[in-house]
Specification:
The protein is an alpha/beta fold. Helices cover 36% and strands 27% of the residues. It is elongated and about 130 Å long.
Length: 440
């Protein structure tokens, strides 16, 4: 049973006769009995929320930053009319509106109301209970009951860098139409035979073909088209830091590094799959959080966004040794390993540097990291003593970051360090440059 504000108001008004009555006790008892009887009658006449059948329908997934409508169907299976409200509960991060719907349902009828969700976080949004509250004809009291209704919706990464894909695909088509690289070495495949010219490497001579012809014949080679690209997403502590701005929020507060890395990974995966490469995905900190292996080109992006959606930064130090072991278990042949992490000097020195040789001995390694634009802003400050100290600290952090990148390059690792909005296109451009120079 629930009481309305009207019942409280009437109870307060009943206090006046009690104050001025010559027999306050008797007046109080009489008025209280009348009020209780009226409230009880109103509760009896109110429609039963137990007789309602509630279902939720609508899409099961949506992209972050895009509104999505979920329909709530309420059927009155009772014998009396249901007048009242229905509250469709969702997590605060879903930003559901409206939360409360007024309904008036005759017996045997049903109504459908819409709740619009404006999610501000990735992951699985689970709907809460649906609470139905009926009010009697007098408006004094009513009945209330919560219904457990199964409902969930997966909020996918927004893939904002999709806008860069057409220009990179055009560049990829230019590379495909160019003359095959006439080189020899690891990571190339046979293209054709041609006559020997001065300057050709004698190791490229095809002696069997030469024996069948009057001229010396050499083999030409071109970059392989079916290389394997393994995208490794570091979900450890450093991925939780918020940098840049959140383009999907009304009040931009910065995306976590993990989300910027996901955006870059999606653009690279889309580009590499169009280039004919096999793309695998692994999310890891101390243990493997998600993985996509041997996906077809048509299913790759859908599987990636589904695997990325529930990922959240783990507030633990990533285990580089376990991460490398997970990669080696899944990848036997030579591949391009793209590690999306942070160029934190302490973390790199104590983690990746200790096991880097295990990867570079067999694979081509590329480290991509998101830099914080606020550091550059602090480094430019000179207005007062406080800003000068901040600038010194920021410049020290930038210097340490450049030093880590230099040491990684010295170990044969490619490094892409870019601002949040620039990471995805910069990583795609670096991949295309590696394609153009036959480094894949």
């Amino acid at each position: 049973m629930i009481l309305t504000g009207r019942a409280g108001l009437i109870a307060a008004l009943c206090g006046l006769p009690v104050v001025f009555s010559p027999s306050p006790a008797i007046t109080f008892v009489v008025l209280l009995a009348i009020l209780l009887a009226t409230v009880a009658l109103d509760v009896v006449l109110a429609g039963s929320p137990r007789a309602l059948h509630v279902t939720r329908t609508g899409p099961s997934s949506a992209r972050l930053g895009q509104p999505v409508d979920r329909m709530l169907t309420v059927t009155n299976r009772g014998r009396s009319r249901f007048r009242g409200v229905v509250r469709d509960a969702w997590a605060p991060s879903a930003h559901a509106e409206p939360r409360v719907h007024s309904v008036n349902i005759a017996p045997g009828q049903h109504v459908t109301v819409d709740t619009r969700l404006n999610p501000v976080r990735r992951g699985d949004q689970v709907g809460g209970p649906v609470t139905a509250r009926s009010v009697g004809p007098l408006g004094l009291a009513g009945r209330q009951r919560s219904h457990r209704v199964a409902a969930d919706i997966r909020i996918m990464p927004p893939f904002l860098s999709r806008k860069h894909l057409p220009s990179r695909l055009a560049r990829l088509r230019e590379l495909d139409g160019a003359t095959p690289a006439l080189i020899r070495g690891q990571g190339t495949e046979f293209d054709s035979l041609r006559e020997y010219v001065v300057g050709d490497d004698i190791r490229s001579i095809d002696w069997r073909a030469t024996a069948r012809r009057a001229d010396v014949v050499v083999r030409t080679w071109r970059p392989e088209r079916d290389r394997r690209v393994v995208i490794v997403l570091d979900t450890g502590r450093t991925s939780a830091g918020r940098v840049g701005v959140d383009p999907t929020a009304a009040e931009p507060a910065g995306w976590p590094r993990l989300d910027w890395s996901m955006d870059a990974a999606l653009l690279l995966a889309a580009l590499a799959s169009r280039a004919g490469d096999h793309v695998d995905f692994l999310a890891h900190d101390r243990v493997t959080r998600a993985g996509v292996v041997n996906a077809s080109r048509t299913e790759l992006l859908a599987l990636l966004v589904d695997a990325m959606a529930p990922l959240q930064p783990a507030l633990v130090e990533s285990d580089a040794r376990a991460m490398v072991a997970a990669v080696q278990r899944r990848v036997r042949r030579r591949a391009l390993i793209v590690l999306l992490t942070d160029l934190n000097a302490t973390v790199i020195d104590e983690g990746l540097m200790t096991v880097l040789g295990q990867l570079t001995a067999k694979h081509q390694v590329l480290v991509a990291a998101v830099s914080d634009p606020r550091v550059a802003a602090l480094a430019a400050g000179r207005a007062d003593a406080v800003e000068v100290y901040d600038a010194a600290a920021a410049e020290h952090a930038r210097s340490a970051r450049r030093e880590v990148a230099s040491r990684l390059r010295g170990r044969g690792v490619d490094v892409v360090d870019a601002l949040p909005e620039d990471l995805a296109p910069a990583l795609a451009d670096h991949y295309l440059a590696m394609k153009a120079t036959a480094r894949l």
